[in-house]
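Translate structure to sequence.
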């Protein structure tokens, strides 16, 4: 697919779940069923031919955060799929004194007649070895967001033990009644949708938590001192430093357009020469003091296609204390 927003939509629907269901958990939204997959495929092809409806929908999202963008993609899918009716998005549940939570999505499944409460997230975590006594961990590893502000174990605890249980609280029930759903008369099913990547270090002992899907998307992360050596010995054809809006689906670009941008210095984040991508990555990571995501590309027909995704991080990453009380 040539259109990035259509590719992002396809990724939101078809990419593997980052997590798998554990005992006592709600159901996990994964790839569509075979019957639904046929509809999705035909629908995405039609959007590739004419993406105007998708672009118009996404233009209404005022937030620049990737989580809000992901929610907008998912909302467009639910709006378009004849199986579902999107009843509410970001429905707040308020007590007399405060907001106690928010339903990401309330959906009616027309096939089953059931209402569904969906909590969704798109996440990118980098793993490293460190004692971790948090209950959603394996005690040996921590999976941390690139900005060191988010943790996989803490996020899953919040989703499982707080967010997805909102419909059982008085404030949640009142919010449902406000959209004409009687929680006492209707069964409200719960679902989790979590997509994203886990990035592994060069240390082979770091493993994913047991609740992660074995088919989850993977990348690697390198300190700047490791990054240069890895790029030097690699056989990729080109590289793209990805800004946040480009983090969703695998990167793809026409070779002629990409090379022209590189040749004419029309894009500071596209490279076909190893010394250039190494120097620019080091400059950006050092100057900004934060990790950068890089897509490693190879030629396929007339396009550059992403074949590996990685993070380059400062040599002192993660710059955190030992408590990591996120």
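Result:
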């Amino acid at each position: 697919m040539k259109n990035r927003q259509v590719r992002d939509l396809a990724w939101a629907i078809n990419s593997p779940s980052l997590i798998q269901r554990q005992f006592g958990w709600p159901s996990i939204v994964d790839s569509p069923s075979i019957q639904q997959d046929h509809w999705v495929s035909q629908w995405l092809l039609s959007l590739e031919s004419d993406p105007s409806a998708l672009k118009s929908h996404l233009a209404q999202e005022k937030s620049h955060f990737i989580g809000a963008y992901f929610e907008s993609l998912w909302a467009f899918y639910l709006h378009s799929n004849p199986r579902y009716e999107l009843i509410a998005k970001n429905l707040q549940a308020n007590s007399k004194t405060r907001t106690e939570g928010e339903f990401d999505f309330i959906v009616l499944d027309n096939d089953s007649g059931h209402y569904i409460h969906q909590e969704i997230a798109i996440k990118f975590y980098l793993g490293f070895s460190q004692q971790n006594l948090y209950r959603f961990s394996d005690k040996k590893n921590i999976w941390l967001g690139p900005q060191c502000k988010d943790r996989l174990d803490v996020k899953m605890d919040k989703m499982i033990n707080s967010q997805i249980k909102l419909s059982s609280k008085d404030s949640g029930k009142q919010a449902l009644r406000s959209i004409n759903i009687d929680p006492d008369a209707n069964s409200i099913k719960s679902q989790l949708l979590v997509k994203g990547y886990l990035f592994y270090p060069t240390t082979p002992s770091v493993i994913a938590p047991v609740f992660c899907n074995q088919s989850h998307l993977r990348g690697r992360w390198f300190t700047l001192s490791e990054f240069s050596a890895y790029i030097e010995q690699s056989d990729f054809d080109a590289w793209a430093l990805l800004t946040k809006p480009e983090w969703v689906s695998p990167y793809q670009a026409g070779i002629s357009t990409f090379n022209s941008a590189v040749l004419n210095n029309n894009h500071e984040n596209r490279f076909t020469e190893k010394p250039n991508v190494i120097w620019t990555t080091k400059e950006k990571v050092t100057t900004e003091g934060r990790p950068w995501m890089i897509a490693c590309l190879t030629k396929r027909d007339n396009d550059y296609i992403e074949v590996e995704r990685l993070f380059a991080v400062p040599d002192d990453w993660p710059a955190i204390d030992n408590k990591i009380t996120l």
